[in-house]
Amino acid sequence: ETASQEKDEL
Amino acid sequence: MNIFRLTGDLSHLAAIIILLLKIWKTRSCAGISGKSQILFALVFTTRYLDLFSSFISLYNTVMKVIYIMCAYATVYLIYGKFKATYDGNHDTFRVEFLLIPVVLLAVLINHAFAPMEILWTFSIYLESVAILPQLFMISKTGEAETITTHYLFFLGLYRTLYLFNWIWRFYFEGFFDLIAVVAGLVQTILYCDFFYLYITKVLKGKKLSLPA
Predict the structure, then answer these.
(1) Is B70 part of a structural domain of the chain?
(2) How many structural domains compose chain B?
(3) Residues ≥6 apart with Cβ < 8 Å to B124
(4) Do B112 and A8 touch (CB under 8 A)?
(5) What is the ipTM, given to two decimal places?
(6) A chain contacts of residue B12, beta-carbon cutoff 8 Å
(7) Given an 8 Å threshold on Cβ–Cβ distance, is B110 in contact with A10?
(8) pLDDT for position A2
(9) How far is A5 from chain B (nearest CA, A)?
(10) Distance CA B68, CA B72 (A)
(11) Could you list the residue ranges that cross the membrane (chain B) (predicted)?
């Protein structure tokens, strides 16, 4: 599971 | 930020504004699925909870606030102010058939088993199918007002542009989010039939009517 990346999208 | 994501967000904003203006100006929500609008309000609510916990940019915050306010204003107009014009007899899609699988999927397939992450995943999965009640309603009534087709076109275009945004980000930033991409593909594929009708009919000045 890839780490939860920075959520910068709307 | 890249051109695909910016035009995607603006296309999304255009869709939301077109719908809100259509209901407000015509004082009618005929042909609009209130269920889809409730699902979209739920999508924004579960995805934008980070408004209170993290600041990414002014653009990000402003757009999230606008999306949430417009979504709830639209739901209010449909079920509140103009509920007399709400066509409940044709807005009969069983949303529990969407919500239950989406909740299960969000709990089972996510990037991290943490509340915010699961809410975000739920929101991504829900958004990919949230338009189904609206498309179902159009198939039941057999037609859609032209302004409604423009709303759907920009709404479908936004996630299509996001697919290019993800290609761009993968190539230039090495960014890749399988959950968002797969859900975005499903979401865009659901619009293909509508896109075909929109391009072959509405753009030629005809009314969108489905073979009932």
Answers:
(1) yes
(2) 1
(3) B47, B179, B180, B183
(4) no
(5) 0.89
(6) 10
(7) no
(8) 46
(9) 8
(10) 6
(11) 65-82, 94-113, 119-139, 151-172, 178-199
Residue B209 lies in a domain: no
Asked whether the beta carbons of B111 and B149 are under 8 A apart, the reply is: no
Weakly modelled stretches of chain B, pLDDT under 50:
none
B134 lies in which domain range?
3-202
CA angle (A4, B71, B74) in 5-degree steps: 165
Q: Angle of helix B132-141 relative to helix B178-200, nearest 10 degrees?
A: 20
Question: In this predicted model, what pLDDT tens digit does every residue of A1-10 receive, in sequence order?
Answer: 444 557 999 9
Which token pair is B21?
A: 């203006």
What is the pLDDT, as a whole number, of residue A1?
40
8 A C-beta contact, residue B23 and residue B82: yes
pLDDT at position B211 is 74
Nearest-CA residue of chain B relative to A4?
A: B111
Which residues in chain B are contacts of A6 at CB distance < 8 A?
Answer: 56
Contact B114 A4 (CB under 8 A): yes
In a domain, residue B212? The reply is: no
